Amino acid sequence: MTLTPSHKGMIVAALVLVAVLGYGLWPEARPVDTGTVRREPMAVTIVEEGRTRVRQSYLVTAPVRGRLLRVDLEAGDTVRRGQVVARLLPVMPGLLDSRTRERALAALHAAQAALHAAQAEVKQAEAGRRLAADQLARNRPLQARGDISATQWQRLRQEFSAAVARLDAAMAAVTLREAELDSAEAQLRESTHALEGAGVALTAPVSGRILQRLLQGETVVTAGTPILELGNIARDLEVLVELPSAEAVRVSGGDQVEIAHWGGPGVLMGEVERIEPNGFTKFSALGVEEQRVNVLIRFRGSAEERQGLGHGYRVEARIRVWQKDKVLTAPSGALFRHQGQWAVLLAESGRARLTPVTVGKDNGRRAEILSGLSEGQRLVLYPDSELQDGARIAPDPAEGS
């Protein structure tokens, strides 16, 4: 059968029509963003707002009832230990009765005994710190060779950190007892000698700065009325973070902390000093009841690095609870749940390939991949439910996160 030119034209037109229809009905390649599987250092952190505070603050109070003269010092002023910070005119200047003197003498003896006990605690804490340091030094070569477990090494580090904290607390207790002794001696002196005109001199128990001026103008006060609050910001500043109890159990003493958004340049470094064992209930800004735990963070580095940071300032604490130097990681946005397990879509040869994976740690940006992937593979980021296994895709030319 011979085809006429008209028949040939009709066949060509039909073939063109079939090709056009096939092209129109053929599924287009979907553009997708991709990320790369990498081997890199990885860390998991807990981020929470905190506030600074002075670990040991001291109150200057009125030793007897009297008229407080005007306080000229202001918050932020620097004072030395023993410096006169306020004056008080007793209601009846002169000798106090024998009963008051006996009480002052008893308070002096009690302060002396408390100071001796605190000094003994310092010696005991120093011995404990030396023992913990020796154990840490003896086991360091074993840890480097891998002869002891990571848990044992962590326990030795925690014991050393706890011994250092106990020594600091004991030394702070000695400072407090010395201040109490000075106060008792001053009260005994004032119960023995009349200070006509000059009044009772109230002195600073420690060197530092005025944190609060609780009273300013001249007024009558009773014994025990607080007047000034003092503290050593350069030496005793720490960060208090109120963590949800579910997060606090992941934190250990000695964990590294980055302190950011404090108002100065750069990031300050610190470490977790103590996790308080007692939780408390707190309501969030949305009215949600939460169980919180206080976590105390000690600054590392010199006081000059945090110049200007004071008592009660807001900061952001980033507590590093886990880290590794070399981990196979994938973007967290590539992971999704499929039939009860984690999976990803590999971008291979213009197709999306469903691949199950085993996931370890996840810090919200990158996830640790224990099995299922290899370094250098590209993954589809944020895949939707319509993107199925084997679908045609057009990966972005630039590498994703």
Give an overview of the whole structure.
The protein has 401 residues and is α+β, with helices and mostly antiparallel strands. Among the domains are: 30-42 and 326-395, conserved putative lor/sdh protein from methanococcus maripaludis s2 fold, CATH 2.40.420.20; 58-86 and 200-231, RNA polymerase II/Efflux pump adaptor protein, barrel-sandwich hybrid domain (OB fold (Dihydrolipoamide Acetyltransferase, E2P), Beta Barrel), CATH 2.40.50. It contains five helices and 24 strands. It has helices spanning 5-25, 98-145, 150-192, 233-236, 245-248, and strands at 30-32, 34-36, 38-54, 57-61, 66-68, 78-79, 84-90, 200-203, 208-213, 219-221, 226-231, 237-244, 256-260, 268-275, 280-283, 289-300, 314-331, 336-338, 341-348, 351-356, 358-362, 366-371, 378-380, 393-395. The strands form six sheets. A six-stranded antiparallel beta barrel has the order 3-12-16-14-13-17. Strand 19 and strand 20 form a beta hairpin. Helix 2 (98-145) packs antiparallel against helix 3 (150-192). The longest helix has 48 residues, at 98-145. It is elongated, with a radius of gyration of 35 Å. The two termini are 64 Å apart. The mean pLDDT is 84.
